[in-house]
Design goal:
Glutaredoxin, two-stranded antiparallel sheet, 4% strand, Growth Hormone, Chain: A, 4-stranded mixed beta sheet, 71% helix, mainly alpha, globular, single chain, 25 helices, disordered N terminus
């Protein structure tokens, strides 16, 4: 990290190279730990579903676990507003000290939270509350770290300097996967799933102590400090950022023309790829984590490369190219992942195709971000069971009122209508249906799990690394691009909101929306249409309406 140093903007405030390195290291390390905390939940969603949502059937429990994960993303924009305002009023340094304390403590408490079996419905309620606190904290963290580093960097290398912050999300995911894997291998699968899953959450206390200590050594951003000394800082950053059309227009364009596409490419390349391997293709969790970790290890240096490249050819061109390439290649890449991870599933789908024969009026789009809907029609029961099992299927319309049937090759399996059943009767019938469906699928050659001997690990690592490189293209330059769009007095608030709406809402719901799309349509790749459509939207809006900011001074708007 020898480049970041020197003159700061038009005011000629100067810091040395060692100070610049320390700023980048401290900001990046703390943010790595914060992402580690946030990603633990996503990586352990299946276990958390059993621990905290065991009062539901397996499919509903997993959906609710995904929704609880998404809840943390949903509140991130509110965290951006709360902590963005604080950062523009009080300062960058102290604001992201507060955010990391909230994140670390919330994560630690998940590790000691009693399960549903111990305290009943209070367990998922407290869990979701902690997830909301995590999301609020993360909503304030990223904008602070990116703004802080950018305000310590030169105009001609800001993409490079802030790209180190961009590595932190992948670094946090990588660290969480390594800690989870280490605990799995040390304890064994049975012990890990019973109680060992708590250890990665408890480790966050140590990471929190290190992060707080490091951040206490930092000084306030020189640009913010000088502006505040001169009395030029905003007294009402939120109303100035979002109540004035000249700023609000840039916020809207930053959301739809930059961060929305960046977000779906990011979450598809990292989280959805892991979800697809484990939940759809049924690859062993340890193997899948190792494969994704290897892909991350290969791809992560490209964050720095594309940040550096954006200082040469522009932020916009790099991000738009990433959105375009991802949209064009997702389908062939994910089909190749199936071929190399679970060839038996590919063969069974070709030789014994599955069809759901149901009344279309009974088939719902199984997406419920607030968790209030109950999907208990015979069609929804059949489709969610197949989607959760990773089984591709076609749809065939049946007469109105018909109870849905699953046909596997030539073998029929009748579903059931759960609407009139009480909880106990539903659980009993659902178990019987699941058993009959499983037997028929096994007889037709559909594997319950991917055969470890048939998993082509080198090819999967290459494919996963390509997906990560797409992530680095869109994410490496995004911090510098956003920071340069807004004036210093409202920068923290203004850049945080579009970033966190994009990443918290458009990106965070990728697994949940993709699962709902697959359940509705039957094609295991159909969920990819969501990130593809959003990426293309960003490509069009960003190309036509969002300006290039490379080389601009952070005082350009002040």
């Amino acid at each position: 990290m020898s480049s970041p140093a020197g003159t700061l903007g038009a005011s000629q405030t100067t810091i040395g190279k060692s100070e610049a390195r320390r700023v980048i290291f401290a900001s990046s390390l703390g943010t790595v730990f914060e992402w580690y905390d946030f990603y633990l939940y996503g990586s352990l969603a299946a276990i958390i579903a059993r621990q905290f949502f065991s009062g539901l059937n397996d499919t509903s429990a997993f959906i609710f676990a995904l929704l609880a994960f998404a809840a943390g993303f949903a509140v991130r924009p509110f965290g951006a507003l709360v902590f963005g305002r604080l950062g523009d009023l009080v300062g960058r340094k102290y604001t992201f000290l507060v955010t990391i304390l909230i994140m670390g403590l919330s994560t630690f408490l998940v590790g000691v939270l009693p399960s549903y079996a111990s305290i009943g419905v209070a367990a998922p309620v407290i869990l979701i509350s902690l997830r909301l606190l995590q999301g609020l904290a993360l909503g304030g963290e990223y904008g602070g770290a990116a703004t802080y580093v950018a305000e310590h960097s030169r105009d001609d290398n800001r993409g490079y300097a802030t790209s180190w912050i961009q590595t932190t999300a992948t670094g946090g995911l990588f660290l969480s996967l390594l800690v989870i894997l280490g605990c799995r291998l040390a304890l064994g699968t049975e012990a890990f799933e019973a109680w060992g899953w708590r250890i990665p959450f408890l480790v966050s206390a140590l990471l929190l102590a290190i992060s707080v200590y490091i951040r206490l050594q930092l000084n306030e951003s020189p640009l913010f400090k000088k502006m505040k000394e001169e009395g030029k800082h905003s007294k009402a950053p939120l109303s100035e950022a979002f109540g004035q059309w000249k700023n609000l227009k840039i916020v809207i364009l930053a959301l739809f023309g930059a961060t929305a596409g960046q977000a779906v490419v990011w979450y598809t390349g990292q989280f959805y790829a892991l979800y697809f391997l484990t939940q759809t293709l049924k690859v062993d969790a340890t193997t899948a984590n190792l494969l994704v970790a290897a892909g991350l290890l290969i791809g992560t240096p490209f964050f720095i490369f594309f940040g550096w490249l954006s200082d040469r050819i522009g932020r916009k061109s790099v991000v738009m190219a990433g959105c375009l390439i991802a949209a064009l290649t997702y389908f062939p890449i994910f089909k190749a992942i199936t071929h190399y991870a679970n060839p038996a599933l590919e063969t069974a789908a070709a030789t014994s195709p599955v069809t759901v024969i149901a009344d279309p009026a009974q088939c719902s789009f199984q997406f419920d971000p607030v968790g209030k809907k109950v999907f208990n029609s015979s069609c929804d029961i059949a489709k969610s069971a197949l989607a959760k099992a990773g089984i591709p299927y076609a749809n065939e319309a049946a007469p109105a009122g018909t109870v849905a049937q699953v046909r596997i090759g030539s073998t029929p399996v009748d579903a059931f209508n759960g609407k009139a059943l009480d909880k106990a009767a539903f659980k009993e019938q659902n178990a019987a249906f699941g058993s009959a469906l499983g037997e028929a699928l096994t007889a037709a050659g559909y594997p319950k799990k991917a055969d470890p001997a048939a998993v082509n690990k080198p090819m999967l690592v290459i494919l996963l690394a390509i997906l990560v490189i797409y992530v680095t293209m869109v994410y490496g330059p995004i911090a510098a691009w956003l920071v340069e769009m807004f004036p210093t007095r409202i920068r923290y608030s203004s850049m945080s909101l579009p970033y966190h709406i994009g990443n918290g809402w458009f990106g965070g719901f990728v697994p949940t929306i993709a699962f709902a799309l697959v359940s509705l349509h039957g094609d295991i790749y159909y969920g990819l249409w969501y990130p593809i459509v959003i990426a293309v939207m960003t490509l069009i809006i960003g190309t036509l309406f969002v300006r290039e900011t490379k080389g601009s001074s952070l005082h350009a708007h002040d």
